[in-house]
């Protein structure tokens, strides 16, 4: 949650069937934060009130859970960050469910061709998980099919579950050979 946002946000959890998603919205029903931590962990000491999510958010999450993935991108999201991070996060919302892009492809789509590491930062610091679908971004070396999910703000296992739910074939990464460093 961004400390610059005015008003006391409403926080609630929603069951995806395989995980609980914590969601915060402002008075207008715009998602301002979401993640797989508890409401209190995401709020990090900032005040919030508990209640029911607005119907457009609940209906979009129910649709996503039932396989209608596009409706989630119709939910308004307060996208924060530097202008370049905002560009990248806006592009994330255009990556369709059932597909993945690399960090380099995301940067290119955002008009930031040589900034794949910034694309990684936009994902790793994403305050609105699922609504800004950073789980759809993988390292260039992990493109499949099947893809290797890689790391995720929640856990590697969560990213695999989200991608699998959206119809992406995933596989585990080959274990590193610690003796050789590869």
UniProtKB/TrEMBL annotation:
Could you tell me one molecular function GO term of this UniProt entry? methylated-DNA-[protein]-cysteine S-methyltransferase activity
Among the GO biological process terms of this entry, one is: DNA repair
Q: Does the keyword Membrane apply?
A: no
Gene3D superfamilies listed in its UniProt record: Winged helix-like DNA-binding domain superfamily/Winged helix DNA-binding domain
* Domain Methylated-DNA-[protein]-cysteine S-methyltransferase DNA binding, first and last residues per copy: 90-168
Q: Does the keyword Transport apply?
A: no
The protein's annotated catalytic reaction(s) are: a 6-O-methyl-2'-deoxyguanosine in DNA + L-cysteinyl-[protein] = S-methyl-L-cysteinyl-[protein] + a 2'-deoxyguanosine in DNA; a 4-O-methyl-thymidine in DNA + L-cysteinyl-[protein] = a thymidine in DNA + S-methyl-L-cysteinyl-[protein]
Keywords, in A-Z order: DNA damage, DNA repair, Methyltransferase, Transferase
Q: Which InterPro entries match?
A: MethylDNA_cys_MeTrfase_AS, MethylDNA_cys_MeTrfase_DNA-bd, MethylDNA_cys_MeTrfase_DNAb, WH-like_DNA-bd_sf
Name the PANTHER family on file.
METHYLATED-DNA--PROTEIN-CYSTEINE METHYLTRANSFERASE (PTHR10815:SF13)
NCBIfam families tied to this protein = ogt
Report the protein name in the record.
Answer: MGMT family protein
Taxonomic lineage: Bacteria, Bacillati, Actinomycetota, Actinomycetes, Actinomycetales
């Amino acid at each position: 949650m961004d400390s610059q946002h005015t008003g006391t946000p409403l926080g609630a959890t929603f069951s995806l069937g395989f995980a609980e998603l914590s969601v915060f919205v402002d008075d207008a029903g715009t998602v301002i934060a979401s993640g797989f931590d508890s409401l209190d962990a995401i709020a990090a000491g900032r005040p919030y009130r508990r209640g029911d999510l607005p119907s457009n958010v609940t209906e979009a999450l129910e649709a996503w859970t039932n396989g209608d993935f596009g409706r989630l991108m119709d939910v308004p999201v307060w996208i924060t960050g530097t202008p370049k991070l905002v560009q990248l996060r806006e592009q994330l919302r255009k990556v369709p469910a059932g597909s993945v892009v690399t960090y380099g492809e995301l940067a290119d789509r955002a008009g930031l061709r040589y900034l794949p590491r910034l694309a990684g930062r936009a994902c790793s610091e994403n305050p609105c998980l699922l609504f800004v679908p950073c789980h759809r971004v993988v390292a260039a070396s992990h493109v499949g099919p099947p893809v290797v999910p890689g790391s995720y703000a929640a856990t590697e296992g969560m990213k695999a579950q989200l991608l699998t739910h959206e119809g992406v074939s995933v596989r585990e990464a080959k274990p590193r050979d610690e003796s050789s460093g590869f």
